[in-house]
Amino acid sequence: MNVIRGKRALVTGAASGIGRSIALALAREGVDLFLLDQDGAKLAAVAGQARQSRTEVVDRQCDVSRPGEVGASVDALLERWGGLDILINNAGVVYFGRTNEMIDSQWDLLLATNLHAPLLFIRRLLPALLERREAHILNVCSLYGLVPKRKVAAYQTAKFGLVGLSQSLRYEYGPAGLGVTALCPGWVDTDIVTAARERGWVSGSFRIPSSFAMPPDRVAARAVRAIRRNEGLVAVGVPARLLWMLHRLSPALVDRWQHRKRRPRA
């Protein structure tokens, strides 16, 4: 998609972090926006900023973990625009802690937000996207959708699944003019960990390394470039690319590294 000016995009999780930065980056490129987030107040502020670029911006409160709200939002978009050019699946939550300590409701909410919601948006919007001469889906995955880590099993289940979904869709619909990108940032300076702590979803010490954390604007710029170039799998940031390469070249070495702090079970 060499020319994105004048296109129309849906962005989930647009009130903060990576979603906010992608929304504003697309607005500067002249893309009309349909923005979704469950935080209506913050979303309205982002929409106001995006309108300064003189593009059409619609903001709608939506909890993507609820299929009914996803369906209603898609219906509202299609009623207003009749179609879509770019779908950005970004909304996500994280849980950090021992897998056996997670309860069913935590698993259900995390998978509903991080995996089922992107899948539902894609299923509902795929016919409209395929009607375009060219269109694009960008799924914001994670370094942890490529490289394993302890105590984030649910998050990795969703992100590995989203990477696989992205690659399968790319091969299936690429010849029809639909581009698909799995964007896998490394550590990013967002409030996702803070939100997890407030929810009580962090057990023990978990933080984003400040020396490696990228600003979300950098991820957004890479996302726009990936859409323009129709890139398939993009690891964002030097640490992410190095870890991904190491995992591909020597899985055994990464396995030993991940076990370096293992303790005997009680």
Please tell me about this protein's structure.
- With 266 residues, the protein is of the alpha/beta class.
- It has a single domain (8-258), classed as NAD(P)-binding Rossmann-like Domain (Rossmann fold, 3-Layer(aba) Sandwich).
- It has 9 helices and 7 strands, in the order E-H-E-H-E-H-E-H-E-H-E-H-H-E-H-H.
- It has helices at residues 17-28, 40-51, 67-81, 104-130, 153-173, 192-199, 216-229, 238-249, 251-258, and strands at residues 8-12, 32-37, 57-61, 86-89, 135-140, 178-185, 233-236.
- A 7-stranded parallel β-sheet has the order 3-2-1-4-5-6-7, with helices on both faces.
- Strand 5, helix 5 (153-173) and strand 6 (178-185) form a beta-alpha-beta unit.
- Helix 1 (17-28) packs across helix 7 (216-229) and helix 4 packs parallel to helix 5 (153-173).
- The longest helix has 27 residues, at 104-130.
- The termini are far apart.
- The model has no long low-confidence stretch (mean pLDDT 92).
